[in-house]
Design goal:
alpha+beta, Aminopeptidase, about 25% helix
């Protein structure tokens, strides 16, 4: 998988289309969750795109502290369904953590994890904090990775 990292203004129209298409495919169609994906926050995000040839197969968006949560954060973590067996989720998370470390010089990252993925995020050093909650009708939990610089 080839990983490309861009700010919103650096994305071309085709990349933006592929991002929105993948997010809709996974979060809206596959997970049967009707919600407003285009939330006005993409302009403040760093976009981490994972490509196989010309296909966008993995993606996250990353924020500096204060742009989404009080800590730097990672969200919209996606791997296209038929590519999940290749470890691309781990690769895109590693690239996202490294990019946050490099760009924002911070020692902590927060994310809102779907509960069934807690072990996945724990394998990347995140720990559950607080109680679970529903986000767009799906059980989630806040997770934080501390002191990784």
């Amino acid at each position: 998988m080839n990983i490309i990292i861009k700010s919103f203004s650096q994305l071309n129209l085709e990349e933006l289309y592929k991002i929105l298409q993948l997010r809709s495919e996974v979060f809206v169609v596959e997970q049967n969750c009707v919600y407003q994906d285009v939330d006005g926050k993409d302009m403040d995000a760093i976009h981490v795109l994972g490509f196989e040839d010309t296909d966008l197969v993995a993606y996250t968006r990353c924020f500096d502290a204060g742009n989404y949560f009080d800590k730097a954060s990672i969200g919209r973590v996606i791997v296209k369904e038929n590519f999940r067996k290749y470890g691309y989720g781990h690769q895109i998370m590693e690239a996202s953590v490294n990019e946050i470390k490099k760009r924002f010089n911070t020692g902590s990252i927060k994310l809102s994890a779907q509960q069934y993925l807690i072990r996945f995020y724990e394998s990347h050093g995140f720990q559950q904090t607080g109680e679970g909650y529903l986000e767009d009708g799906i059980p989630h939990v806040a997770m934080i990775k501390e002191k990784f610089i």
